[in-house]
Amino acid sequence: MTGFGALLKKELREQYRTHRILIVGSIFALFGIGTPLLLKFLPELLKLSGENIQIQVLPPTAIQSFNEFASTIGQIGTVVAVLIGMGIVANELRHGTAVMTLSKPVSRAAFVSAKLTAISMTFLLALTVAAFFCFFYTNLLIEKANATVFFQSNLLLGLFLVFCLAVTVLFSCLFRSSLAAGGIAIAVIISQMVISDVPVVGDYLPVKLLEWSTNIISGIGQSYCWAVGVTVVLTVLAIYFGQYSLKRREI
């Protein structure tokens, strides 16, 4: 992939200049901090509401905090990934800036790979920061927690987010409209959730990584090892077909 290193540096600078790192990091950190805080102070908030409703709230646990964090990142993180990634190639194709980059001695494969690598690094960094805050405040406010299972859970979350980004970048390569790219990407991701209920077949889908993530934290439920392999393969295929589509089209 000719020029990958130079393009990656360019894309990382672009992540900083467009404030994507700040935006994604702030959104993830908000949920990383907010989840244990909300669980801890929920009883007090209910009392301050002034409603004469007797609601018994059990003391929160670390498992509950981590599960809420994983579920929230799995949902909100997916939406953010699509919104951030849907125009990463499409906008350059539409505005003609891709021509300027590709007129230099760089390959189209490197062009796509550098963009996905840079945006994936942004999301993984944001996830790491958010997970640190969640773990810190869970230990501080709720109870001592198991760092190992939380780390394993976040590995699965990170892999799923990279998959979502790869799918979005693929459609961003296929369409000049970022809205079309984002709409189809989110439709593909949501369709998995429907198919995931199908016996046997559903166990191999990337969306099962989210369920496995919470299962690890809870210590109960099924593991989906094959879903990891399928996710990696589909991510690689998304990158390949994204590169292939740019090679085949007139820019």
Protein model, in words:
This protein has 251 residues and is an all-alpha fold. It has one domain. Helix content is 77%, strand content 0%. The protein is built from ten helices and no strands. It has helices at residues 4-17, 20-48, 62-85, 90-95, 97-102, 108-141, 147-174, 178-195, 208-218, 225-248. Helix 1 packs across helix 6 (108-141), helix 3 (62-85) runs antiparallel to helix 9 (208-218) and helix 6 packs antiparallel against helix 10 (225-248). The longest helix is centred in the middle third of the chain and has 34 residues, at 108-141.
Q: How many structural domains does the protein architecture include?
A: 1
Q: Summarize model confidence as the mean pLDDT.
A: 88
Number of DSSP E strands: 0
Characterize the biggest β-sheet: none
Please render the helix and strand layout as text.
Blueprint: H1 4-17, H2 20-48, H3 62-85, H4 90-95, H5 97-102, H6 108-141, H7 147-174, H8 178-195, H9 208-218, H10 225-248
Keyword list:
mainly alpha, globular
Brief digest:
With 251 residues, the protein is mainly α. It has helices spanning 4-17, 20-48, 62-85, 90-95, 97-102, 108-141, 147-174, 178-195, 208-218, 225-248. Helix 2 runs parallel beside helix 6.
